Amino acid sequence: MSQSSEGSDSSICRARSVGFLLLDNFTLISMASAIEPLRMANQLSGRELYRWVTLSPDGAPVCASDGVRVAPDLSFDAAPALDMVIVCGGVDIRASVGREHIGWLQSLARQGRMLGAVCTGSWALARAGLLDGYDCSVHWEFLAAMQEAFPRVAMTTRLFSLDRDRCTSSGGTAPMDMMLRLIQQSHGRELAAAISEMFIYERIRNEQDHQRVPLKHMLGTHQPKLQEIVALMEANLEEPIDLDELAHYVDVSRRQLERLFQKYLHCSPSRYYLKLRLIRARQLLKQTSMSIIEVASVCGFVSTPHFSKCYREYFGIPPREERVGTTSVRVLTLPVNLESANRDESLSTTALSRARNESTFASVRV
Question: In what order do the strands lie in the sheet with 160-163?
C-alpha cells in the first residue's frame, strides 16, 4: 500500500505514551472517543504505536457523570514520563479541579509535555494558566463560562483545536476526530481512514468543523426577536430574505436589527447570514455528491465565481479543494519519550495481544 507523506518518519518511532487524567464526573463517551482510536491504530498496524494509562491524583477510583466508577491505573506520583496528558472533564467541572490537578499539570508544562483536554477538561488547563494565548475548544454548554472566566484564552466553537503543544476538543464524539487527526499527522491518512471505517464513522471531521451551538444558549431568553430573525435566516438559505424584510417580519427597524447583531453576535446581519449559507455549503460539499454549481445555487449564491470567492475568503480554500480533500494541515507531532517504552506490561500491549486473531490485525502498513 502506498503511504502518504504525512508521518513518513513514523516507522522509526517508538510507542508514544498518553495519559488520561480523569476528573470527577468526567464523561465516559468523551474518554472512550479519545482512547479507542489509539487502540485501533495499534490493531490495524499490528504494532504498538501508542500506549495509554488512566490517572488520578492518588490512584483512587473516579466516578464518571453516569455513575460508573473507574479505577485509574496510576497516581500522579507513580506515573511514568508521558509524552502527552489529556484531561477528561465532564459535569460540574469547577468543583472537580483541585490544587493537586493544577500543580501537576503545571509541572508537566514546565517539562515541555504536550497537554490536551476533552469535553470540559479545557477548564483545568485554563485554570492552571496553560491556555493563555492558545486556541481552545470546549463543549458548547461551557463556552460562555470559559470566555468570561479566561479572557486571555482564544475560545472557539470549533469541534477541536490543535495549537502548538495544546490540543483541546469539545465533548461527545469530537475527541475521536481530534485523535484521528493526530494519528493521521503521525502515521498517515490511510491509517486514520481505516480506523474511521472500523468504528463505522461516516466522516472524519477536521479543525474547520464547528459545534452546532444553540442560539438560545448563547443569548439566553432575553432576545426572542434576534432568535426569530436567525430562525428565518436558517429557513431561507436558498433564497435569502432582504434585511429590510427580516426587520419588518419581527417588527424592528433596520437600525435596531444591525445593533442586535453587533451587540450579541459581534457581526453584521449580512455577515451572519453569509456565514450560515457557507456552513451549509460546506456540509453539502462534504456529505453529498452535488456539483459545486448546484451547491452554490441551493445556498443562495447568484453565480459560482461569487460562491467560490466567498468560500475561499471564509474557509481559506476554494470549494474544489474542500471536496477533494487537498487541504494542507499543520503538522502537530507527539514527541517520543524513550523512558515510556520500559514498562513491562501495559493496557496497549494487552489489547494488542487480544487483537491478534482479528481479521483486521496488521491490515494497514505504517
Answer: 74-75, 50-56, 16-22, 84-88, 114-118, 166-169, 160-163
